Request: fold
Amino acid sequence: MGDLSRLCIHTITNKPWSLPEALQAYSDQGIGGVSIWQNAVEPYGAKEASRIIADFPLKVVSYVRGGFFPALDQTARRQALDQNRKLIDEAAEINAPLLVLVCGAEPNQSLLKSREQIREGIEILLDHAQAAGVNLSIEPLHPMYADTRSAINTLGQANDMAEAIGSPAVGVAVDVYHLWWDPDLEAEILRCGKNGNLDAFHICDWKSPTVDMLNDRGLMGEGCIPVKTISQWVEAAGFHGFIEVEIFSNHYWSMDQHRFLEMIIDAYKKLYH
Amino acid sequence: MGDLSRLCIHTITNKPWSLPEALQAYSDQGIGGVSIWQNAVEPYGAKEASRIIADFPLKVVSYVRGGFFPALDQTARRQALDQNRKLIDEAAEINAPLLVLVCGAEPNQSLLKSREQIREGIEILLDHAQAAGVNLSIEPLHPMYADTRSAINTLGQANDMAEAIGSPAVGVAVDVYHLWWDPDLEAEILRCGKNGNLDAFHICDWKSPTVDMLNDRGLMGEGCIPVKTISQWVEAAGFHGFIEVEIFSNHYWSMDQHRFLEMIIDAYKKLYH
Reply:
């Protein structure tokens, strides 16, 4: 992994850049893949974005992010499904093999209810996703996001749900930021690797202290997450896909993005030399 | 539980008050118990604090907080043990039947290593705690505190550790703020209730949004934690001890503390009418 062919960057990591700026910078550095966020596509529309992307030698790894299924009323849940169908179509348009799902949660109902609505939402989308050739990846989120962002907070829960749904179009996305603390993480990574559900692997770091619950993620190596060890578990589970850097950070977004990209590449090379 | 005989307040909840001010206000309201934080004792010393407490008709429910065992070097780990011995003695002095353990974590070593050091620390303290008649309660902390505050982040882990240590002087403390998101919570509460390890039950709420990772806890009813449901699990597990309100909140600390105490009592009565 010493070269950058397995490195993938999420466009949100370099949020100040437009889609063409990000694609140009990643290509110039010899980075292999890119995960495209919806906000980067929006100014162009998916068709035009697809043409822009085609000019660069980058593999589109995923489209981010669908989900947000739970809601108190059925109208809102139907709107969420429509939005997800649109995102699946956009993913297909930009040749993204998978749509990452931030499953959602509704603070005014129980987590159990939200989980039922998540499962129902995914099951309703299955035909549409399979017809489009886009996989749906359940990304468990850190328990600190259980109020509004996701009622799926451990890899065990994501694995349970993916297995219960039992479709080849549904898998899980492993993000070290959300899962590093979990004593069952190694076993659960092995589990989804073995059964073919391990779709994606996201890295960054947990800064100590973390000053913002959403936008203070760290660069690999500056925090307390054993990224190398977790990477080895992911490899041992049979995953040899892209290693995706996904960093939300007010700090890093405020700096020169070319300099930040160099720091990401340095951190990546240190990890996987 | 309509009356306040099972209600207990943690002194930190009314941080602006001195120990005598807090004890006076709780007594005036007919509250049954108090959990005493070290910072409330410090200005007086434990002996003098004990005399102050004896003037009020309040049951001391716990002393908060020991722990913080992990450290990179042995000297620091020994100092932590000395500090815990001092806290056990202070707990005995103020007639607190238990010392709550915030177990600690060291961001520059693995969680596994920190957990080993936690277990070792507790085992070393057992004789001292038993001689003093003070139980040690492992409080699992929310995974967002896994970097520096605790490597024990689920009730399952706390139960595992308490059972592995296997001493009548070691139990667990259940705090809804840390554990509400856990899909295994009901089963793990039942587990520690059945085996006699359920020492304490702490309540507050999770505000949505939460603006500070440490000091933005909510009053019961204003957030998304199903406090009533979790209370029923705790009752069903055979726990009939005090219901402890523990709220760290810059917001509430900035308001009139008598008014805040009334709000706590109202919220408590609404929950347990």
